[in-house]
Amino acid sequence: MAEDRSPDPDADVCIVGAGPAGAIVAARLAEAGYDVVVLDAGPRFDLDDRTDQLDAHIRPGLEGLWGMGGERDAYTSSGPRGYPLNAARVKGVGGSTLHWQGMVMRLHERDFELHSRHGVGVDWPVDYADLRPYYAEAERELSVAGADDNPFAPPREEPFPLPAFPPSHSDAIFAEACESLGLPTHSVPNARNSEPADGASACVGYGTCKPVCPSGAKYTAERHVARAEAAGARVVDRAPVQRLVHDDTGKRIDAAVYATPDGEEHRQDADAVVLACGGVENVRLLLLSASGAHPDGLANSSGAVGRYFMDHCFAGVGGRIDRPTRQNHVGFNTTECHALYDGVDPLPGVKLEFLNYAGPSPVIDALHADDWGDSLLDSLRESYGTHLAVGGLVEQFPRAENRITLDRSTTDDHGNPVPDVQWSIGSETRRAIERANEVQRSILTELGAEIDWVVGPDATGPAYHHMGTTRMGTDSESSVVDPDCRAHDCENLWIAGSSVFPTGGAMNPTLTIAALSCRLADRLDEWL
């Protein structure tokens, strides 16, 4: 039977996007008794297909895990550096948590006060103390496994919901070198079950967390979608929103206009609208909703919609040592070092990551090999088991020229202009990448490793953490949303997700997304 994608006649809230931001807001509002509709551009993915998706990832000739690409997902990148937008985003119920690695940590206190403390970037209109209780809620919402052993982390008020994952074999190797170099190491909070929780098993060690977790131990926003639906919310897949329409005053959103697979367009009216479709698509939808009252795009009287696009840059050094490393037994990080983050020169923060998945996987090598028997075994023994790598996320400061715009020369499957990504890296970020490489080299040199590769400033790529394009602030002339994430220009429009971040730090953003989403749900509950 065809799925009913007709509008809900009595919606209190329409949420655009079923990733972690939208799904958390939907679950909490539905559980509070509101009539909630969620519209997502992509399909639902069946949990029973995850093992088949794993096969599609590792076997030669099979591809297309999450259906990204083609006319639906077209984009351009006209900036100084090409930006591979579709390499890491997912359109579908669950969003990019379907294939993320799952590391979650709080921003540091300095991240909220970058301008006050250091004279760069901007300050957030909220500080760490404002978000501290919501960080604790977010850790519970995501069933975070962790330990309070990070000497650089901001203060916390309660233990993590689940115990931390133990250090891996290669973590223990790195710990020797880091101790000699005076670099404190500590555990990594993870949004994956270290013991059974939320109706899912503990991690069983597939080692393929990115791009797929067949066991369900890693959090995806599907958990909150299920909660929202159990509380009465309606989640409509394959319903890409084309534009938002407003009343005669231009100050109130009347409806989200969305398309369905049968070629029809529908109008979902609601008292409140929440955009939660990511740092690129949030911008695109606002710009596609331009009108006489909002000629430069909806909620864009400041001209800030799309500007200050930030990502985290990758820095890394890898090599081999003459001892077993047991690479790829774990598909996520269990040890990090934040010693290069606060009050160091150069200023951009650096988060060092000790990679458990350095070097080739024997399974993938075997499946792609042309030889057999003893010859294959010899080649696998040669390629596997002695690789080490230290990675790192490096902070980008907000820059107005880094932005998302519309490319009107290229259209998607509905005839709409596609997003254009204009991305570059400033001199301060280059210096921080170079400093990260110095420390990473020193760690591997201390271990006597033969260095095989370095990812430095000329070869760096993004971590696919899209931030800053609808920044929050108290000044409506320089920001898009207020401290409660409500648009300055539209009284019933809210924006959820990392696009509201004024600065990005060097910490993975999803826990902060979840904390802001919990806070936004409270604000909406007060407003409705």
Automatic annotation (TrEMBL):
Q: Which Gene3D superfamilies match?
A: FAD/NAD(P)-binding domain (3.50.50.60)
Q: Which GO terms describe its molecular function?
A: flavin adenine dinucleotide binding; oxidoreductase activity, acting on CH-OH group of donors
Positions of the 4Fe-4S ferredoxin-type domain: 193-223
Keywords, sorted A to Z: FAD, Flavoprotein, Oxidoreductase
Tell me the cofactors it needs.
FAD
Asked whether the keyword Metal-binding is assigned, the reply is no
What domain of life? Archaea
Pfam family for this entry, one? GMC_oxred_N
Is rRNA-binding one of the keywords? no
Query: Which InterPro entries does the entry link to?
Result: 4Fe4S_Fe-S-bd, FAD/NAD-bd_sf, GMC_OxRdtase_N, GMC_OxRtase_C, MIP_CS, P2Ox-like
Family under the similarity heading: Belongs to the GMC oxidoreductase family.
Q: What is this protein called?
A: GMC family oxidoreductase
